[in-house]
Amino acid sequence: MPQFLHWFLRFSIFNPICWRLIGTASRRRKDLYLRSGYVAILATVLFFGLLSLPTVSRFSLRDLAAGSANVFVFLSVLQLLLIWLLTPIFMASAITKEANPKTWDILLSTPLSPLQIVLGNLFGRLFFITALLIGALPLMVVTQFFGGVSIETILLTQLVAFCLAFTIAAAAIAMSVTRTAGRKAAVSFFIVTVIYILGTYAIDLFLRLPVSVGANATWTTVLTPFNPFLVLEALLQPAQYVTLESSALPWPLSWISTNPVVGWCSLTIVISTCTIILSALQVRKLGQKQIGDNWLKQLFSAKTSEHTSRTVTGNPIAWRERATSRQNIGSALSRWGFVGVSTLALIILITLYATKALSPDTFRTSILFLVCGELLIVTFSAISISASAITKEREDGTLDLLLTTSITPILYLHGKVRGLVMHLLPMVLVPCVTMMSVGVLVLLDQNNAIVSDKLIANSQYSNVISIPLALAVPAILTPFVVIPYIAFCLTLGLLWSMRSKGSVGAIIATLILIFVVTSGLGICLVPSSSMGVVGSLFAALSPFNLLFTTLSPATTLPELLSSGVLRANIEFGISAIIAGGVWTLISIGLLRSMSSSFVVTVRRLAGVN
């Protein structure tokens, strides 16, 4: 083979790092289960979606086509969400995993250039995302059997999802290159993407203009090509979210605004290419010994090695968690920065609502996006720090020392949970305080806190029920659900941190389980909407279900609300307290199970990195 061709092929999928990653990961059961679970979730949704379609003997072919199109829309959005979740998982240890087994110096000594190293890691892990999209393609094509979906639309949805995966993969590579800790990079990246997706979508809702006076259809905005979910909405619902025919904005904004799909693909390719080039310029720094030094630590650290003694009070493990978290300046800045930004956003929204600058419907939508983003960030933060709490001590050898002390498994695990809860408590209280503030606003101004939703009462009440901005009682009782739910996430993260060899594997396993549990409860909310009190219990189990039900009870629980707003407040408030007790009992049961198997599991993995 000519030397030039050999050099050129290293920039493609024939890169040796790419082949090594594909060959190694293809033999892992964990990756097999991950890919199988992805296809199984889509297949299950498609199966039940097609079962819900009416039969041909009762409805026309047009009804079947419309139902098939609705199934395809839901399937496409679900696939985009899964790709958004799975791509960071595959990319979390993109380059930093090479440094864990002390092979990074060897990798840098090979003839591969920095760009070839970055592209090898990118293509190797992006291969599995591409395989997921190809595996889901036959499921998408099945919806064509009933009509309503063109093959061009199916291919374009796959292209939008691939561009999203490519952008996330390039950004994850950049995060891995600039940070040596994969866990911190994953947390930072997830928080940034959640804020970006929810922020652009919320701003787009405010910028939308109706196509005509009184019409439900709206024009796309300048933010449409910058958000994959907005691009998907413009592609799958062109009658409701109409693409602009012309734009007065300067080029290229005018071009991408009138062509959202092409604009999204072009933007992602350009941004990803620039990110890859910048990552290649920084990749050699990973081999330097001083890469782990943080300039903030160097700035604020003491020059002497002597430390004053401290008195340990209460549980020693819980004290250690609190003491070490205070020394991490970056963690403190991110934690209190999140609290400050969220509090400022809440104050601004309440001020605009109190001055009548925001209508109750707009205020409700803003609170929905704000709290949903806060819950996502807090949940992922809880998973990240808990899933790496034990594996981190195993990797640095601290756990082996703790096993030689008189600390019992119960004392150790309870101390871990207590210390992590106290560490995350300021962040956990943010969505709770937001919802409690909304509940207080509804109680203080019941006459004006009315949204446009309407609901016809049952036979006992002949009038039309006015829907409040939020159900006040469950809004005030939000801490009874959110805090136990986060404690459950912390306990589950500790369980997998105890069983896993590395932090990345524990985070991935915990994240998948939490996603399955939370999304499963979300799916249960649909059939339980007409089950009255039982439906309210399912709606209160998940904090996300609680959020949507509290702010939009007419849509999620019309059967419960038809008996009156006061009764709905009482019954749903009691359900929230019961849901909190359920999460608490589950967490206690997990802790007891972990305590009984702690010694065997930890000693089996002792000394394993």
Structure description:
With 609 residues, the protein is mainly alpha-helical. It folds into two domains: 3-285, no CATH class; 322-604, no CATH class. Helix content is 71%, strand content 3%. The chain has helices spanning 3-9, 16-25, 29-51, 61-91, 96-99, 104-108, 114-142, 151-178, 182-207, 228-236, 253-258, 260-282, 295-300, 316-327, 329-354, 360-387, 389-395, 398-402, 409-444, 472-476, 479-499, 503-524, 533-541, 543-551, 553-556, 558-561, 565-604; strands at residues 218-219, 241-242, 450-456, 464-468. The strands form two sheets. The protein has a two-stranded parallel sheet with strand order 1-2. A two-stranded antiparallel ribbon has the order 3-4. Helix 16 (360-387) packs antiparallel against helix 24, helix 19 runs antiparallel to helix 21 (479-499) and helix 21 (479-499) runs antiparallel to helix 22 (503-524). The longest helix has 40 residues, at 565-604. The protein is globular. The two termini are 40 Å apart. The model is unreliable at 289-305 (pLDDT under 50).
Question: How many structurally independent domains?
Answer: 2
The number of helical segments is 27
Helix % is over 70%
What composes the largest sheet? 2 strands, parallel
What is the molecular shape?
globular
User: Structural class of the secondary elements?
Assistant: mainly alpha
Oligomeric description of these chains: single chain
Number of strands: 4
Mean pLDDT: 77
What is the topological layout?
Elements: H1 3-9, H2 16-25, H3 29-51, H4 61-91, H5 96-99, H6 104-108, H7 114-142, H8 151-178, H9 182-207, E1 218-219, H10 228-236, E2 241-242, H11 253-258, H12 260-282, H13 295-300, H14 316-327, H15 329-354, H16 360-387, H17 389-395, H18 398-402, H19 409-444, E3 450-456, E4 464-468, H20 472-476, H21 479-499, H22 503-524, H23 533-541, H24 543-551, H25 553-556, H26 558-561, H27 565-604
